[in-house]
């Protein structure tokens, strides 16, 4: 990595016109080294110790020097904090404040350094992973068999016409039918990119017992399993919130404090939903019903009647069923959002956030970022291999697209 940095600097300076980005960073380092020497001279610990022993240590002058130096070195975001330090007269409080801000400045520098080197690290990581995988592929030509099978399944999901009767919301065919340019929506062969993205989405439905996991994604399997669990939990959470809102009304749900409390309770109770769905939703329904009753009472609103309470409990417990209408719609819209993240990027997808999911916008956006970043990196590393495989799966003319390699 050390040699790569200097080689990159040479390329920048020899380019037309020259790129001085890295050179300016080096000059900044030189400046900081000069400042370091000045600091060592001004804060000579032996000299300061002698001055303290003879009662000649000028604490205010020393404090002002340190604060001026911090102002010179800190990021603009820390200017206000340093200005507040200048108003502190108590030496103990001042020192405590100085060390607190210095800690923040240290983290600022660490984050800046990471951000500066991230492009070089990512580029090196992609090249390294490609080289290592090619070495394994040369030794074991069948290394892409499961990957080929995975992409073939994705192409089938997109090209097979959608059934007239709805399938299980957790099936990959149902996901493909619910998405833009999905199965049966277009007579043209699918693009390689659409097939690949369908394959990525299918990973979130992967059966843990199925060991034929794509070889190109084995290193990411654990993280994908965690994302699949989060997706499942968000589906249940959003379904619970939608049912609860339909009974309690907009006034109660306009309270962010109430919504956050309901989220927290539901998340905690649904940790074991997959292994114990009926028991879990029984606990959720009872607790949510109690929270709604107390919330309406605290706001001076009419509480639910016995009949409405029973209906609320029943609808919440019905979420355990995979064919539950609310759960199916929520599941499809979440997967649609993730597909849009892959196709259009995160920012545009947030501008067109799915209706009905606004109550889990923060949580879903977090999942979207993680999924998008992981799949984007995988696409950069293994795009050339996917392109070759897809040439033999879909129409040859369509497979000439190069965006599978470079998106």
UniProtKB/TrEMBL annotation:
Residues 158-190 are annotated as: Disordered. Transmembrane segments: none annotated. InterPro entries: Tcp11 (IPR008862). Residues 161-180 have a biased composition (Low complexity). One of its GO terms (biological process) is protein kinase A signaling. GO terms for cellular component: acrosomal vesicle; sperm flagellum. Belongs to the TCP11 family. This is T-complex 11 family, X-linked 2. It comes from Mandrillus leucophaeus (Drill).
């Amino acid at each position: 990595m050390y040699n790569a940095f200097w080689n990159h600097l040479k390329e920048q300076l020899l380019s037309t016109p020259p790129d001085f980005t890295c050179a300016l960073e080096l000059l900044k380092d030189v400046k900081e080294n000069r400042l370091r020497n000045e600091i060592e001279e001004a804060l000579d610990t032996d000299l300061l110790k002698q001055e303290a022993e003879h009662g000649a240590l000028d604490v205010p002058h020393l404090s002002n020097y340190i604060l001026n130096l911090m102002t010179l070195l800190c990021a603009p975001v820390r200017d206000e904090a340093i200005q507040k330090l200048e108003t502190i007269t108590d030496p103990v409080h001042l020192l405590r404040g100085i060390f607190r801000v210095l800690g923040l400045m240290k983290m600022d520098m660490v984050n800046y350094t990471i951000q500066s080197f991230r492009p070089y690290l990512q580029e090196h990581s992609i090249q390294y992973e490609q080289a290592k995988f090619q070495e394994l592929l040369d030794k074991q030509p069948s290394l892409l068999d499961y990957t080929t099978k995975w992409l073939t399944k994705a192409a089938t999901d997109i090209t097979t016409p959608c059934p007239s009767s709805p399938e299980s919301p957790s099936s990959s065919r149902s996901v493909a039918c619910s998405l833009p340019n999905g199965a049966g929506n277009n007579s043209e062969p699918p693009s390689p990119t659409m097939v690949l993205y369908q394959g990525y989405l299918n990973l979130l439905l992967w059966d843990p017992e199925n060991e034929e996991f794509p070889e190109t994604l084995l290193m990411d399997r654990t993280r994908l399993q965690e994302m699949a669990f989060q997706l499942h939990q968000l589906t249940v959470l959003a379904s619970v919130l939608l049912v609860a809102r339909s009974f309690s009304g907009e006034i109660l749900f306009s309270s962010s404090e109430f919504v956050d409390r309901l989220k927290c309770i539901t998340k905690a109770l649904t940790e074991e939903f997959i292994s114990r769905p009926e028991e879990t939703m029984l606990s959720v329904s009872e607790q949510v019903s109690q929270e709604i009753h107390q919330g309406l009472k605290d706001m001076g609103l009419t509480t639910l009647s016995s009949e409405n309470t029973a209906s609320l409990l029943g609808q919440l417990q019905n979420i355990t069923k995979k064919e539950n209408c609310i759960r199916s719609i929520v599941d499809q819209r979440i997967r649609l959002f993730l597909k849009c993240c892959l196709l259009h990027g995160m920012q545009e997808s947030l501008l067109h956030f799915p209706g009905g999911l606004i109550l889990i916008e923060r949580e879903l956006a977090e999942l979207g970022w993680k999924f998008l970043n992981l799949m984007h990196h995988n696409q950069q590393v293994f795009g050339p291999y996917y392109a070759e495989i897809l040439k033999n799966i879909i129409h040859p003319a369509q497979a000439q697209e190069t965006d599978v390699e470079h998106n």
